[in-house]
From TrEMBL:
GO terms for cellular component: plasma membrane. Keywords: Cell inner membrane, Cell membrane, Membrane, Transmembrane, Transmembrane helix, Transport. It is a multi-pass membrane protein. It comes from the Bacteria. It is found in: Cell inner membrane. The chain crosses the membrane at residues 6-38, 59-78, 98-123, 175-196, 229-251, 257-276, 297-323, 335-361, 373-398, 410-438. Part of the tripartite ATP-independent periplasmic (TRAP) transport system. This is TRAP transporter large permease protein.
Amino acid sequence: MDPITLGIIVAVGLIFMMAIGTPIAFALGGVSLLALLYDRGLTELTYFGETFFDRIAEFGFVAIPMFILMGAAVASSPTGRDLYRSLDLWMGRLPAGLAVSNIGACSIFAALSGSSPATCAAIGKMGIPEMRTRGYPDGVAAGCIAAGGTLGILIPPSVTMIIYGISTETSIGRLFIAGVIPGFMLAGLFMIWTIIACKLAGGYANPLAVSAEKLKNTVQQNVDSNLKAVVRVLPFLGVVAGILFALYGGVATPSEAAGVGAFLCLMLAILIYRMWQIGPIKLIMRDSLRESVMIMLVIACAEVFAYALSSMFITQTVAAAIADLEVNRWVLMGVINVFLLVAGFFLPPVAVIVMTAPILLPIILAANFDPYWFAVVLTINLEIGLITPPVGLNLFIIKGIAPDISLRDILLGSLPYALCMVLAILLLCLFPGLALWLPNLIMG
């Protein structure tokens, strides 16, 4: 059987297993095992086990559970609440200020947690009820939080950037810096659309929801509380700044910086919020362990899947076919982005990166694209999948937070933000320096 036909059969089998509800890691591993047994026989079982364990035994992967622990310490403490209050204090008077401050809170919380679902849940639990109370449209309230949560995989430190760096053997520190300007540019685009959406909806001060006088009194009463919240959040921001300095200054490796950051965030959560009981600490450890095991299992099975494709010459055949396309390199980039967009509709970012990055990198380099610039484009592309069906993880998190908001309103409120992400990708194509200027300035 020729490699292309075999590849189509493998792809259909993988889609079928995921369609019937098989977890992604088991679907990848099961399809890989069956394909190897068909192509090579029982002797391949030995290589299956070796490939599975050898990949996740790399020291660089230590950074993943450590950054996840750091994010869990922040997400499971009242840090998100304090961050939300702090930004509401300073940005609440702007046009559509509360919704804009929610996106700002998502941007900063993304840097603290590195996780899109954690960002979406932590800020959404406070932001959505408050925005609805103040008369913001349901679509805006849900959409800005769903979109703001996606920033967790772009603004450093980002777990997905670590996985991309290990998969492609590129500098993780440089990847982190490359995501800074695009991350805040995307947050700015979100804020602009939020202001426009509120004006198109006829404003956001609903007198039936809350009177102006009552709102004024509430703000006056909460100023002191919000100022204290600012003070409590600053040490966590200091930890993030210290991690980035250690990485960019060559003081520590990503794994070392992640370990120190996780320890400091855990200690800060315990000391600042007096989380002395075993219950909250146990919850942090449980959430960290669960997410870490899930990601590492996906990585290991994706590596086996990539090995299976390579053994059957599927990867090489597809890569050669794409490379032989006599088209403009920007047309090639468009084709790759459409492929990533479709993959992101059905798979989480981690799975897409470990499955496609090693295959796409040689094609990207052959077309004279920068791998760090491509990492940012790829990440923004995968962010779209977090707020679009059928998977749309952030959409379902919002639905869980506000079950009385229809999924239709959540989706319609989120789609304009997906267009903002498409605009961000176009801007990066027109001005690659948005992703490359800062890494070149800092790291040469």
